[in-house]
Every structure is written in C-alpha cells, then in structure tokens.
C-alpha cells in the first residue's frame, strides 16, 4: 500500500522530469527519434538564457515568500498567545471566526484585492504581494500556533513570571524556543502558500522582471499560439519544485513535529 501511494505521488514528478529532458519530437513520437537526439538539455538552456532568466522568477518568489512568512509569524505569535490566554466564550468565538476565515474561498476576494491594489498604488510592487498573502495566511497560522501554546504547561510561564521576566522576555526566552517545531511547520506552510499563489500575483504584477513563479510558468505555457512548449513548461515546473522539495526534506522533522504538537496530551 505504501509503495502504491509513493508511486501515485512520484509519478507526476517523474513524468515532468522525463518530459523536460527529451526533445519535442521524442516526446510526441519516441520511435522516430534516433538515440543521440532523444535526450536534450535545450529546455533548461532556453529557460536559463531567456530574458529575464528563469532564476529571476525563483528569486522573486523567494523574496515574496520570505517577507510573507516573516510578516505572518510576527503577527501570528502575539495573536495566538493572546487567544490562548483568553477564557470563556470570547476565545471560542474568535477561534470559530478564524476557522471560517481560514476555509473561506479566497477567489471571492479577487476583485476586492485588485481594486485595493489600484487605490493604494501596489501594482508592480513586489513586496506589496506579502500584504494580501500574510492576511490570507494569518488565520491558519494563528490556529496552529494557538494549539502549540495550549500544549505548553502553564507552570513554565508561572515560573518565568516569578523570576521577574516580563511578557516579551517570557516569550523570547521561555515559550518561543519550545515552540520551534510549531513555528517551523507554520513558516513552511505559509511559505508554500505564497510560493504557489497565482491570481493575485497575476493581477498585481505585469512587469516581466517582477513576476513570481506561477504567472511566469503560465506565460511560458502560453507563449505560442500554435504549439504548446511541453518541454520548456516541464523544465520550468521541475526547476520551480526543486527549492520546495529541498525545503521540505531539510525540515521534514520540524513539519511533522509541529503539525502533531498539541494533538496528544498526557
């Protein structure tokens, strides 16, 4: 069963990798292509030598993702702490409101965000993308961190308070180090969300050198009226997936530990 699930998950990635490494003729009719002309790196060369080069889109997405993650965590940590320290009906009302915001279909906010960008002059401002991204990621981040705060024994903060530590010191020196797995998993989820976001980036950014990865890949796929550049499109998806795969592999322990924190008590 595990092997079947692994095959189901990796087959699309393997097919994209294969499509990116073969010539267009070999992809359509493999039998008609000689062995020497079957494999090629032209698809990757085309992307890396384009104007702007493909690595620029990766850099733009990294900048936006990093800014979004930093801004989201900066707001989510105090919000989650304050929510967990609340008692009674107010805490559950706010939690339900956050849950509703987290599952709300963001596509319904598309036109409102576009009008907001026009009114505030956020068009073609790369870092401005982090504002709606943070707003859309904040409810889920608060819910995850609130569960992590709930898993910490209240005696830890009581002891720190007796030592004379103020709230900022308690968060910095006592609570946040213990929340490192939850912070790591939340940060990765926020980063992945901003990395893959398409409609807001498509409408807020029009200058080619400022595009993030999803609209840039969409332009590659639609660059020809009569043919579909399958090879270049596949190469773009492979290059765009490598940073995410590396990130998940490096922090997979933190992701699993953070997502399961608070699930078991005792």
Number of strands: 0
- CATH top level label of the largest domain: Mainly Alpha
Low-confidence runs of at least 5 consecutive residues: none
Tell me the major beta sheet: none
CATH H-level superfamily title of the largest domain: MetI-like
- The helix content is over 70%
Q: How many distinct folded domains? A: 2
Order of helices and strands: HHHHHHHHHHHHHH
The CATH architecture designation of the largest domain is: Orthogonal Bundle
Spatial shape: elongated
CATH third-level topology of the largest domain: MetI-like fold
* Average of the residue pLDDT scores: 86
Number of helices: 14
Strand content: under 5%
What separation lies between the terminal Cα atoms?
A: 32 Å
Derived from helix and strand composition plus strand pairing, the structural class reads mainly alpha
Rounded to an integer, what's the Rg over CA atoms? 23 Å
């Amino acid at each position: 069963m595990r092997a079947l699930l692994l095959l189901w998950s990796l087959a699309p990635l393997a097919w994209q990798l294969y499509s990116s490494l073969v010539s267009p003729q070999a992809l359509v009719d493999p039998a008609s292509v000689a062995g020497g002309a079957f494999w090629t790196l032209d698809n990757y060369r085309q992307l890396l030598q384009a104007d702007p080069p493909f690595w620029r889109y990766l850099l733009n997405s990294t900048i936006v993702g990093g800014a979004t993650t930093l801004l989201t965590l900066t707001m989510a940590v105090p919000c989650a702490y304050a929510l967990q320290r609340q008692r009674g009906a107010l805490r559950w009302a706010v939690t339900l409101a956050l849950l509703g915001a987290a599952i709300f279909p963001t596509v319904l906010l598309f036109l409102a965000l576009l009008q907001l960008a026009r009114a505030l002059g956020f068009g073609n401002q790369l870092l401005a993308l982090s504002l709606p991204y943070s707003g859309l990621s904040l409810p889920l981040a608060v819910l995850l961190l609130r569960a992590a705060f709930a898993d910490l024994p209240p005696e830890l903060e009581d002891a720190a308070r007796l030592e004379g530590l103020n709230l900022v010191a308690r968060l910095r020196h006592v609570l946040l180090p213990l929340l490192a797995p939850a912070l790591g998993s939340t940060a990765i989820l926020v980063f992945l969300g901003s990395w893959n976001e398409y409609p807001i980036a498509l409408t807020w950014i029009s200058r080619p050198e400022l595009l993030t990865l999803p609209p840039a890949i969409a332009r590659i796929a639609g660059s020809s009226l009569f043919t579909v550049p399958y090879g270049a499109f596949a190469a773009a998806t492979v290059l765009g997936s490598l940073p995410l795969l590396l990130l998940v592999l490096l922090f997979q322990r933190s992701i699993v530990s953070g997502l399961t924190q608070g699930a078991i008590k005792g």
